[in-house]
Amino acid sequence: MAKKRNKGHQQTKKVEDDKLLLQERLQGDLVEKLKAKQKSLREDQERKQEEELARRREEARLREKNKSFEELLNESSMDWNKYK
């Protein structure tokens, strides 16, 4: 019976430990370093997304600029058969 009581005590102690926040377990300076790293990673990700968006816009602009007359004519909504 004593072993069962110890297991129950260990389980409740584990549950109490799980309730502790990560911030409470770690040292304060380590938490600040992790937050700073998270912020820098987030900024890098946003910068990369902006660069990718700018690159796509430039590619689309160049594609539009370099279209042939045939491509422009095919994209036109006018019915050219009316004017023949």
UniProtKB/TrEMBL annotation:
InterPro entries: DUF3886
UniProt feature, compositional bias: Polar residues: 74-84
Chain positions covered by the region annotation Disordered: 36-84
Protein name listed in UniProt: YqkE family protein
Entry superkingdom: Bacteria
Listed Basic and acidic residues bias regions: 36-70
